[in-house]
Structures are given as structure tokens and as C-alpha cells.
ABC transporter ATP-binding protein (Acidihalobacter ferrooxydans), 607 residues
Amino acid sequence: MEHYRTDAGVSANQRFNRAFFRDVWRLAKPYFAESGERWQARALLAGVILTTVGQVYISLRITNWYNSFYNALQTYDSAGFWRLMGVFAVLASIYIVLSVYQSYLTQLLDLRWRRWLTGTFLSRYLSARTYYHMEVFKRGQDNPDQRIADDLSSFAQLTSSLFSGMLSAIANLVAFIGLLWVLSAKVIVPWGGVEHHIPGFLVWVALLYAVAWTWVAARVGNPLIHLNYHQQRLQADFRFSLMRLRENSEAVALYGGEAKERANFDRRFDHVFGNYKRLILRQKRFNWFSSYFSQVAIILPFLAAASAYFAKAVPLGFLMQISSAFGNVQGAFAYIAQSYDSFANWHAVVDRLRGFLGIIEAVETLQLDASQVERHTGSRLKVAALDVRLPGGQVVVSGLNLEVGPGERLLVTGPSGTGKSTLMRVLAGIWPFGKGRIELPDSGKSLFLPQKPYLPMGSLRNALLYPSGSPATPDTRLFDVLDAVGLAHLIAQLGDVEPWSQMLSLGEQQRVAIARVLLQQPRYVFLDEATSALDEPSERALYLMLTELLPQTAMISVGHRSTLIAFHQRRLHLSGGGRWEELPLTHVPPDTGGSGVTAPAPDAPLI
Ligand SMILES: Nc1ncnc2c1ncn2[C@@H]1O[C@H](COP(=O)(O)OP(=O)(O)OP(=O)(O)O)[C@@H](O)[C@H]1O
């Protein structure tokens, strides 16, 4: 049975408590308080607040207008009717402008906030190779891509829409509570055969009603928080599994793995379906209560004012006015209850982002704790007392001392799994587990080639110049380089945008990587089985070309083939458990079955 990885950021906090609002504040504050665009952000926020409050003010005027209008109708006052039509036209025009701008400014704020949040999260994700260390420390399980692409947008959007909803609720409350209080004075409450006048009666009704509604909404709606949380995660898992098929389409096709893939998709989709079904069932339950409460709220003020109206103590306009005022006050009190499902979604998004931030911070701390490798810039590679470890603490290389000067060529050998690639990662500065001292020319002057080259999306030109080749490099130079690495047949396609990592054979991709060495001319080049997919004559030809064209470039290669011997002057052998030794190039160590002194047969594996 498959065990899904759990998300390190899963929240136990399922309530709208202080901890939750602290998280919101932590996510929201930097944009408005510290960012470079804080003044634009504050101006937009002020615009949103002003237009929201303006809308509420106009609503208040319209409520008063209702009173006059219905009274004009009831008294057959034609002149008053036309005058009030004119008043309404003015009020409605202002309301339209405010409402359009309120929505526009809110969206603009969302968009800019999202851009800033995305930029900030991307910087932290990419800085100090956190994206890589999340995998190494096994902390990157829950789809960081989805958090950056979707959750940040939802956070900005939900926060600003719930904020302006809340603001409008408060403004409505402030605007209408006084009116409702005054109007309540005329409401008659018949009780026990006696007519009572309760000060602010309808305000109390609205408040108690909203409290009851919120209590029910919280009880019924709270599970929506974790259902929303899991829905997003399960959907992202499902999408990611589809993406993996796209990336590995050829391998799956060759294995004929469609049935397995299908079963995997079905299983993941079942999770999406199951959770979504629970979510809509819960939403349905929520809607039952929500609809019930909102329908009853419509008739409450009429029920309350009916006795006074039928006793002819108040006119029809009063009834309409009190219904509108009650609707506004009650709607304001019950804002949270009415929008509880959006609040639950917002909670889920905040939990996910808090989890993501927590993972980033944990990785940053682990990076600091794990790495005690001092790195210095120098003119040559010098390694002193270097220990390399695995995440579990096992020693891969112990106390390595090594010096490789300009133009020198060192071959690193050893049985599979003894840590050759891990040593390369430490030298490249991306492996955090180890201690010791490394001196190397700065990063622009060293180039590391992994076994599987990375070809970015875009043109072949882009791929050749990745990551730091000058965009001004003339095409003729690129033609020469392609020709030199045996890719002359691709010259005509230099500007074509294709899925190059799928189109080119692994050997061709390794040639592209060698082309990068020619273009960047580093002082140190580290080749981790970077020519392993090539046939031996081609591998020989490429090494020969590198040594001839870049005689001053030091070369540190990892490889298993004996063909590499001819192109190196020294050999570092790792034999596992942290052991290492510098051996003569012709020496085959006894633990690999060799005699210990004989040179290997020309094409025999070096292991
Ligand atoms: N991210 C990781 N987490 C845990 N262990 C790892 C990780 N990466 C590598 N290892 C382990 O470290 C050990 C050394 O791996 P490494 O890839 O450096 O070996 P290698 O000598 O380059 O092997 P090969 O010759 O097969 O390429 C292996 O046991 C491997 O399983």
C-alpha cells in the first residue's frame, strides 16, 4: 500500500483564533509596512476604504430616500414623486461610480499584492538553493509550485475581498444602527396582552439573530477549513502526477506503463473526488442553514413592525425604511456567518502559506546547522580536512586534502554509491552536509556538469547560453561550437523553440553541455559522468578537444570508463566508508578485483 507523504505544514489550528490572525498579519504586514511599493499599496488601500465607506453612505441616503418615496406614493404626491426620481438619479449615479471603482481598486490591489508576494516567495525559494535543499532535507513534499502559483493569488484576493466586506459591514453598522435604534422606538411588541416599547428592539433582534447564525455557521462550517486545505493539496498532487507523465512520456511509452499510470491517476483522482464530495456535502449542509437564516432575516422586521403598521401607527414608508435599516444592521452583524465558507477557504490558504513559510525557514536553519564548510575564493582548487556526509550522518568522504592547479586534470573514481557525485556537490557548494575548507575560483569561473544536463525551455540558443552566457554571443560563434561538439546538424535549428530535453538524445544533450564549457571557458570544470552517454570514440574526441582548446582549464572528472585515463594526470579513488586515496592512473585497487598493479585493458570499466 502506498503511503502518501504528510505535509510538514499541516495545521492543527482549525479556529479563527489569535494564532490564525498572527499568521495573517505576518503574511500581510510586509507588503504594506516594509515593501518598496508600500506607498502605492497604502494609497490603493485608502482608495478601497474610501469607496467602500462612500458606498455605505449612499446606501444610507437611499434608505432615507425610500421613506420619502413610499410616502410620496401613498399620498399621491406627483411633484414629490418626480423630485425624488431626480434625487435617486443623482444618488444612483454616485453609487455606480463608487461601486465600479471599489471593485477596480480592490482588484488592482490584489494584483499588485500578488506580484509582490510572488516575487518575495520566489526570491526566498531560489535563494541559497532552498528549492534544492527542500528535496535534500525532504521538506519540499507539498507542491511548492502550487503554493507560489495559486495560494499567493488566493491569499491576496481573499484577504482584500474579506477585508472590504468586513469594512463595509462595519460602516453599515455605524451608519444604520442609530437609524434602526430610533425607528425601533415606534415598534410595538405585544406581549402578555400588553403593548411594549423596547428601546432599540430591532437592534437587539439583529444582534441576537446574528450571534445564533454565527454560532451555527461556525459549527457547520468549520470542517470546510481542512476540507479546503486538503482539496488544494490533492488537486496539486493529481496535477503533478500528470506532469510527471508528460515529462517521462517516452520512458512510460517504452515500458508500456499506461495501465500502471492510469491506476495511479485513478487513485489520485479518487482522493480528489472523495474529498471534494465531502466538501460539497458539507457546503450543502452549510447552505441549508445559511439560506434558512437569510430568508428568515427578510421577514423579521416586517413581523416586528406589523402590529404598529396595522394599528396605523406608522405609514408604509416606515415599514420599508425599517426593513432596509434592519437588513443593513443584521447583514453587518451576520457578515462573518454569511461568508463563513469564504472565511474557511481563507483559513485554509493561510495555513498552507504558513506551512510553506515554515518549511522555507526550517530549511534555512538546517542549511546553517548542517554546513560547516568554509568556502573561500582563490586562484586554485584547494580542499583541506573535508568531511562529506549524507543527510542521515553517514560519512562519505573523511578528511580529504586535495589541491588541483590550473590546467591540471584529475579523475575521480570509485565503485557506485561511494560518494563521487556527492563530493562534486560539496565542491559546487550545493550539498549542505559536511565540514572543512574549500578554496575555488568564484562561481563564474567554475562550471559543474551533471550526468543529466538541464536544458531550459526555449530555443537551442537559450540552452547553449544557459545559465550565464552573454545573449550578445554572435551566432557564428555558436555555429562553431555546435560544430566542434558534433552537433553541426542542429545549426539550422539554433533559434527554434522545441522541447529540446525530450527531442535530443542523452548523448546529444551531453554534447550541448560540453558546448557550454567551450562558450564559458571556465578555469575549473567539473564533469560528473558528463560524457557517460556517448560512445567511447566520441567521448575521447570531446575530451581531446577540451584539452586542446582549453589547456589552462583544470578538469575534475568523475567516470567509470578506462578511456578517460588518457586525458587525466591524477586520480582520486573513493572506496566507501569515507576512505579515499590518490592512486596512480594505471592502478586498479584490490577491492575491485584487480591485481593492484596492472593497467586496465583499454576499454575495461574503471569502476
Ligand atoms: N539526497 C540524498 N539523500 C540521501 N542519500 C543520498 C542522497 N543523494 C545521494 N545519497 C546517497 O549517497 C551515496 C553516494 O551517492 P553518490 O551519488 O554520491 O554516489 P556515486 O559514487 O556518485 O555513485 P554512481 O557511481 O552510481 O554515480 C549513495 O548511497 C546515495 O544513495
Q: What stands out?
A: Residues 136, 390-391, 396, 414, 416-422 surround adenosine-5'-triphosphate (CB under 6 Å). The radius of gyration is 35 Å. The chain has two domains: 18-368, 378-592.
